[in-house]
Design brief:
By secondary structure, the protein is an alpha/beta fold. The protein is built from 9 helices and 6 strands.
Length: 197
């Protein structure tokens, strides 16, 4: 039903952006990716969840996009579950929960290889990541995902599987491992310095 509200049927590619509509999120690049995808597949829809200082300008520039405003809880989960491709062009994330949420929803996430995306996504296996200095590669990856929806089943299943592995126990285990590595490196360095003296 939600896809129908967006003007999409089961075959229509739906690109989703979730996040603050602010300059530091690089959100205009998601819209540019949608424009490029529409050149190949004109029925492609763009859905935007979030609010912020750029919203009015974005709505004026791209009036065909569906702006949902801020969503939480089940409404947000339905938006994720009803889309196909998650376009996340931010370069200013510390972690980026939305990346994990999109993957948990089985979306093909397209992002820059930084922050959470750099940790969670293996390019071509469970999503698409491109180098941060290559915005054209981001545009191309969104287009490729939109035009290859029928073949993305395995990638989307891998995304869900990777998200399931990201519970707090696993996060804390990895963090503890990083701390142990740092302690070991310091001990080895200290031992080496002692030998040199």
């Amino acid at each position: 039903r939600l896809r129908a509200q967006w003007g999409a049927d089961v075959h229509t590619p739906v690109v989703l952006y979730v996040g603050r509509l602010a300059a530091e999120k690089n959100v205009a690049l998601a819209f540019q990716a949608w424009e490029r995808a529409r050149a190949l597949c004109p029925e492609t829809r763009m859905v935007v969840v979030g609010d912020g200082p750029l919203r009015a300008g974005l709505q004026r520039r791209w009036p065909q996009a569906c702006f949902m405003g801020t969503l939480r809880g089940p409404a947000l989960a339905r938006a994720y579950a009803s889309a196909d491709v998650f376009a996340f062009p931010s370069l200013s994330e510390t972690f980026g929960n939305v990346t994990l949420e999109a993957m948990a929803s089985g979306l093909c996430t397209v992002a820059f290889k930084a922050a959470a995306a750099g940790v969670l996504i293996e390019d071509g296996r469970n999503g698409r990541v491109v180098p941060p200095e290559q915005p054209d590669a981001f545009l191309d990856a969104v287009c490729q995902a939109c035009t290859a929806l029928p073949s993305l089943g395995p990638l989307r299943a891998e995304a869900r599987q990777r998200a399931r592995m990201s519970d707090w126990n696993e996060v804390m285990r990895r963090f503890a491992g990083h701390l142990q590595d740092l302690v070991h490196q310091r001990e080895v360095g200290h031992a080496r310095d002692t030998c040199l003296v």
